[in-house]
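Project outcomes to date are best conveyed with an example. Our students and postdoctoral researchers have been running inverse folding experiments weekly, and each run begins with a structure described purely in tokens. The record below, which covers 212 residues, was selected by the lab manager from last quarter's runs and is presented without edits.
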């Protein structure tokens, strides 16, 4: 089967390139480390996190409502440092995308839900500007997945049609919505499967779990 030339890759950050920035497992660790009530932490998180991810409130605003609504024996900076430290690079995917960029001169865009301070920390710490052409992140564009508007905005920013674009996301529902918008959507469950899916649409790479 012939495929149109894929010249653009849109890629989620958390769960694909890096660990998730502030998911339930990270909050569980925070509750243990700082002796917080996890159920209360999660409930408060779900009330306000969407607003933070959409760039309509700051990390300090989020923490005011989720953690520091009562006196604590630790500082705000201690807690932020813990949050930032949860971000780690996942093996192989950065190298895979860098290889595809070098081989095929594809453009690579982040398409991600994340709050501003976490995004900036992750971009700077892991030097993602060296890989990405631009960042369509919820905190910058004030719309978040699963809203189809963020997918349409990404296409407009990149000036590409969806049949010329791959989209990689670790969340099956978001990959499905990307497919409904016409992207070559890949539900990322691991490096080798994603590498095979990319090869099937004409983007072959020698990078594996053990690198090239």
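After processing, the design step wrote out the following sequence:
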């Amino acid at each position: 089967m012939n495929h149109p030339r894929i010249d653009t890759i849109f890629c989620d950050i958390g769960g694909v390139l890096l660990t998730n920035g502030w998911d339930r497992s990270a909050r569980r660790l925070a509750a243990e480390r700082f002796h917080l009530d996890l159920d209360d932490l999660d409930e408060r998180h779900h009330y306000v996190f969407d607003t933070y991810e959409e760039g309509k409130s700051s990390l300090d605003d989020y923490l005011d409502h989720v953690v520091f609504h009562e006196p604590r024996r630790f500082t705000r900076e201690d807690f932020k440092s813990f949050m930032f430290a949860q971000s780690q690079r996942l093996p192989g995917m950065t190298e895979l995308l860098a290889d595809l960029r070098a081989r095929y001169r594809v453009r690579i865009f982040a398409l991600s839900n994340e709050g501003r301070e976490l995004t900036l920390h992750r971009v700077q710490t892991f030097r993602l500007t060296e890989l990405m052409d631009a960042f369509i992140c919820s905190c910058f564009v004030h719309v978040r997945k699963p809203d189809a508007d963020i997918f349409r905005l990404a296409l407009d920013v990149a000036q590409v049609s969806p049949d010329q674009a791959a989209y990689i996301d670790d969340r099956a529902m978001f990959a499905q919505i990307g497919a409904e918008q016409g992207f070559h959507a890949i539900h990322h469950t691991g490096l080798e499967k994603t590498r095979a899916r990319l090869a099937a649409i004409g983007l072959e790479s020698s990078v594996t779990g053990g690198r090239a």
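The chain has ten helices and five strands. The beta strands are 8-11, 107-112, 134-137, 165-169, 184-187. The training component of this project remains on track.
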